[in-house]
Amino acid sequence: MSDLEIRPARDGELKAIGELTLAAYSADYGLVDGVGYAAELADAARRAEQAELLVAVDGDGTLVGTVTIARPGTPFAELSREGELEFRMLGVLPSATGRGIGEALTRAVIARARELAATRVVLCSLDTMERAHRLYERLGFARLPERDWEPHPGVTLIAYGLDL
């Protein structure tokens, strides 16, 4: 995808990034919010302050994807341990799915982990996100069932890791 740029988010884009993330989760995963997660998905400004926020921008300058990168012990880290890098809230604009944007963002996270000399990249995903799971497995991520967890009753997150 030569017309796709992956780069850090810019301040003027944060509202649009939040809207994109919320739209991606609502369209792809049928997000039903009874636990406040929609507000967290929409709050890209907070993610930009407390984590690394990357965006995918297509050739005409349209934001088409985003991902949040968290180091262990930081507010957005849910399961990473020392030496690991975690990513969360990977989202692709619904009208841009199927173009390899999610893969490009995931590869950017892996590259960032290597820059930071991390030994593993980790993530957790709703157990129903089967399309995302296929992407992660195709890229070499393996399940880490010992790190699966439930942030709220009835919400199961399954863990994956990629050793570097």
Features:
acyltransferase activity, transferring groups other than amino-acyl groups, 30% strand, globular, alpha+beta, Aminopeptidase, 164 residues, acyltransferase, Acyl_CoA_acyltransferase, GNAT_dom, GNAT family N-acetyltransferase, 5 helices
A few lines on this structure:
InterPro entries: Acyl_CoA_acyltransferase, Bact_Acetyltransf, GNAT_dom. The chain contains five helices and eight strands; from the N terminus they run βαααβββαβαβββ. The protein has about 160 residues and is of the alpha+beta class.
Mind sketching the topology for me?
Blueprint: E1 5-8, H1 14-29, H2 37-42, H3 44-50, E2 52-57, E3 63-70, E4 84-92, H4 101-115, E5 120-126, H5 130-138, E6 142-143, E7 149-152, E8 155-163
Parallel strand pairs: 4-5
Antiparallel strand pairs: 1-2, 2-3, 3-4, 5-8, 6-8, 7-8
Characterize the structure shown.
This protein is α+β, with helices and mostly antiparallel strands. It has a single domain, classed as Gcn5-related N-acetyltransferase (GNAT) (Aminopeptidase), CATH 3.40.630. The chain is 32% helix and 30% strand. It is built from five helices and eight strands; from the N terminus they run E-H-H-H-E-E-E-H-E-H-E-E-E. The chain has helices spanning 14-29, 37-42, 44-50, 101-115, 130-138; strands spanning 5-8, 52-57, 63-70, 84-92, 120-126, 142-143, 149-152, 155-163. It starts with a strand and ends with a strand.
